[in-house]
Amino acid sequence: MTFELPERAVRATERATASLQRTDDRIAHRFETLARLLLRAEGVASSQIEGVRAPAELVAVAELDSDAIDTSSAWVADNLAVVDDSLSHARSRARLGARDLHAWHRRLMVHGMLPGELVGAFRRSQNWVGGATPRDAAYVPPPAERVSDLMHDLLRFVNASKLDPITVAAVSHAQFETIHPYGDGNGRLGRVLIGWTLSRRTGLAVPPPVSVAMARDIGGYLSGLTRYRRGDVAGWVQWMAEAVSRSADQVLGVIADAEEVRRRWDVTLAGVRADAAARRLAVVIQEHHVITAPMAADLLSISAPAARRAIDALADRGILEPLDLPPSRPGRPARWWMAGELVSLVSRWSR
Predict the structure, then answer these.
(1) Using one digit for the tens of pLDDT, what is the confidence trace for 147-168?
(2) Which fold, 7-245?
């Protein structure tokens, strides 16, 4: 795949790359806390683009126990699990292949309704986007018999292109959506490919959640993909570069907010011993955002009563608050707690 970009598009990709580097420099200092914030925002926003909405706190619960929560939240948590897997793969330096995409698709479809023979495999029949039939569809992808060859070409481009990271991410995503290789989940998996490309080609541990910027400009996103299919590659690359820049710049504000939350926690915990279970739990909760007493006991290697006391200590100081969930299985329901301020950061940002 060869093409030339006008200067305005090239400058936009350069600005986006610089924004990514500024963000990565800030994330490096507080990786554990910020990584989960960014990844959860990406998973929530990418699912919102597909019309599935779930509160950030319920998604966090579903990540830890998908049977404890409703299907929509588990669906979003599946999306987030694939984002995690893709970034681990990006850091491995292994070539991206169809086998990897199929594995991600199987994970994405754990709570989906797709027939088993279409899970983790390229589609075998014609699909379309919008409308009741291909005749009135908004877009009709290539025939199923061409999918394998088209994906082979796309993966070769993704793995070997010498273009800049933003352009490769933009083109690979648009081409993936154009091929529409799976029976379901193409939008979410195609956006996972953006994060994989940015991480692989820039060394970012956690790319900014570009899906947040996309979700805030659905019209621009969808029209950009349409223009790409009509040959306006430059316009699409420029739109994507600007979306990446916006997302990266917004991350800096979220980082500042998260650091302020941590400073308030430090003040609130003044007087609590550094090695106390409550102190240690305050660190753990920054990654998980939600917890139960048994989970706290396991993560901290302490007794159940000690875990409950640690949770009570954080709840008394306003760091944790109860999260009421409807019973999902027979027996006494688990009591969940959440770090409300951190969950709120994800919720506000993902809207």
Answers:
(1) 999 999 999 999 999 999 999 9
(2) Fic-like fold (1.10.3290)
* Pick from 132, 77, 66: nearest CA to 108: 77
User: What tokens were used for 242?
Assistant: 């600007």
CATH 1.10.10.10 fits 254-350, yes or no: yes
Please name the residues in contact with 94: beta carbons below 8 A apart, sequence gap of 6 or more: 100
Spatial separation of the C-alpha atoms in residues 225 and 69, rounded to whole Å: 34
Kindly state the tokens that stand for 19: 């924004």
Determine how many CB atoms are found less than 10 A away from the CB of residue 31: 12
* Residue 290, helix vs strand vs coil: strand
pTM for the predicted model, two decimal places: 0.91
* Stretch (H or E) spanning 292: strand 290-292
Q: CATH 1.10.3290.10 spans which residues of the chain?
A: 7-245
Question: Is the pLDDT at 31 greater than 60, yes or no?
Answer: no
**Pair of tokens at residue 121:** 């495999």
Q: Cα-flanking dihedrals φ and ψ of residue 172, to 5°?
A: -65, -40
Q: How far is it, in rounded angstroms, from Cα 17 to Cα 241?
A: 8
Is 39 in contact with 80 (CB distance < 8 Å)?
yes
The pair of structure tokens assigned to 299 is 């993560």
291-299: list long-range contacts, CB under 8 Å, 24+ apart: 291/320, 291/336, 291/337, 291/338, 292/334, 292/335, 292/336, 292/337, 293/335, 294/334, 295/64
Evaluate if residue 28 carries a pLDDT over 90. Answer: no
